[in-house]
Automatic annotation (TrEMBL):
<dbReference type="GO" id="GO:0018659">
    <property type="term" value="F:4-hydroxybenzoate 3-monooxygenase activity"/>
</dbReference>
<protein>
    <submittedName>
        <fullName>4-hydroxybenzoate 3-monooxygenase</fullName>
        <ecNumber>1.14.13.2</ecNumber>
    </submittedName>
</protein>
<keyword id="KW-0560">Oxidoreductase</keyword>
<dbReference type="Pfam" id="PF01494">
    <property type="entry name" value="FAD_binding_3"/>
</dbReference>
<feature type="domain" description="FAD-binding">
    <location>
        <begin position="2"/>
        <end position="342"/>
    </location>
</feature>
<dbReference type="GO" id="GO:0071949">
    <property type="term" value="F:FAD binding"/>
</dbReference>
<dbReference type="InterPro" id="IPR002938">
    <property type="entry name" value="FAD-bd"/>
</dbReference>
<dbReference type="InterPro" id="IPR036188">
    <property type="entry name" value="FAD/NAD-bd_sf"/>
</dbReference>
<dbReference type="InterPro" id="IPR050641">
    <property type="entry name" value="RIFMO-like"/>
</dbReference>
<keyword id="KW-0274">FAD</keyword>
<keyword id="KW-0285">Flavoprotein</keyword>
Amino acid sequence: MRTQVGIVGAGPAGLMLSHLLHRQGISSVVLESRSRDYVEHRVRAGVLEQGSVDLLRATGLGDRLDREGLRHEGIELRFDGESHRVAMTELTGRAITVYGQQEVVKDLIAARLAAGGTILFSAEATRLSGLESPSPVVHYRYEGRDEELHCDFVVGCDGFHGVSRSAVPDGVLHTYERTYPFAWLGVLAAAAPAVDELIYAHHERGFALYSMRSPEISRLYLQVPADEDIADWPDERIWAELRTRLETVPGWSLNEGPILEKAITPLRSFVVEPMQWQRLYLAGDAVHIVPPTGAKGMNLALADVALLGDAFAAWYADGRTDLLDDYSRTALRRVWRAQQFSWWMTSMLHRLNADDPYEAKLQSAALRYLTTSPAYATSLAENYVGLPTV
């Protein structure tokens, strides 16, 4: 096959880039190693910044988002037996929308297929070649055959374990990372949310987060040790721990119901620089991962490909190379802002060392200052809803 832009990975980044290119009259092919059913149902992030919502609406993908997305104008912080609301919209004029990553993916797939776009599911990219030439090649395995996709550019949106980043020669990329000594135990429960906005709870037993995916489905998280085994967490133990960490405000209780899914996810920070080499451009989890505390992962991926969409449009329309040349530098400004915010939220809300009471007092002091200082609260709100420019 021949196309203009070959895209590896059909997550939000790869699909959105294909959608943006189509709107500019640029052809693309998306290769995805998993099945369509898998990518449309894998539960990942669920918080969209204002800029991500604006992008979806501006590109014709806002109908179902506006019907089913849950607009939130604040978040709640719980600590020391108290509850405090950060009024994000009042402080910034912007908001977040809770709309699951799998729903964004469904909308993008439907839009691309309706427009005649090519998405090959169960097509595993095995290697990239010719990246230094005007016609790089994506080699992939599809329906039992070895195939080739020839293109002008390759964009790797295939996540941390994909083949795209490893196609860059040794010594070109620089990696910055941090591994946290804890993980998140996340559950999806058939229980109506007992709150209208997200609750971030700092507790002596560890962090907890109360979120939601719809008016009928709750998404909840517990901080657990990094080496924890999910088999040690039967449903009743999960609910008991959630009650302990979240029901710290008199008169409030969470709603419980059947747990539909549960998994443990390690927390880490990871950035690779640069995000481009020759005719290969990298986006999303292929080059940066953030702790989920700041809700930045999917939003960063969409911001990456929004830059690439403009850059490819300029190249194909006028032969301009400046936006492509500046892609990595421009994207990394937002990436590192999100890294710092996610690290800050993670460090303030999680028990980093259960045996250190001094550290716990510092965290409480930081949270109290945050909830009493309009300037500090505005900083959190600006970062959480997404800075328009960085």
